[in-house]
Design a protein that fits this description.
The protein has 127 residues and is mainly alpha-helical. The protein has one domain. The chain is built from four helices and two strands.
């Protein structure tokens, strides 16, 4: 199949997927609306119909103001944040250039899923 045909197919499938996701979100909101009288902000709710059993897990997203947290200078028994190490890719690449064995000793590399961006070309006229 030619590249243009594959791109056109990918665009149409993405549009169909987006429409399906919007419809599913709408149905899920309608299902969830049946649980509002229970006034639970966070937790697990259950309901059963004649054919289906539903579990709704309500969650809250929390974010942290790191500077405000650190300024509290909490004692060890009151600290509630775990600071997790993460790779600084820019620094890692610099170290890798200077001494690759350091990176090889402690970093495992696996391929991630590729992303593909498709944009329609502007139609070129004969002028």
């Amino acid at each position: 199949m030619k590249l243009d045909e594959l791109c056109k197919k990918a665009i149409l499938l993405k549009q169909s997927l987006d429409a399906t996701k919007r419809e599913l979100d709408s149905v899920n909101l309608e299902i969830e609306s049946g649980f509002h009288e229970q006034n639970i902000v966070e937790g697990v709710l259950h309901a059963s119909g004649d054919l289906y059993k539903v579990t709704v897990t309500k969650k809250l997203n929390r974010s942290l103001d790191i500077e405000a947290y650190q300024s509290l200078d909490l004692p060890e028994n009151a600290q509630f944040v775990d600071f997790k190490p993460s790779i600084n890719l820019k620094r890692m690449r610099a170290v890798e250039q200077l001494e690759p064995s350091i990176i090889e000793a402690c970093v495992t590399v696996k391929p991630a899923k590729s992303t593909i961006k498709i944009e329609e070309e502007e139609v070129k006229d004969g002028n």
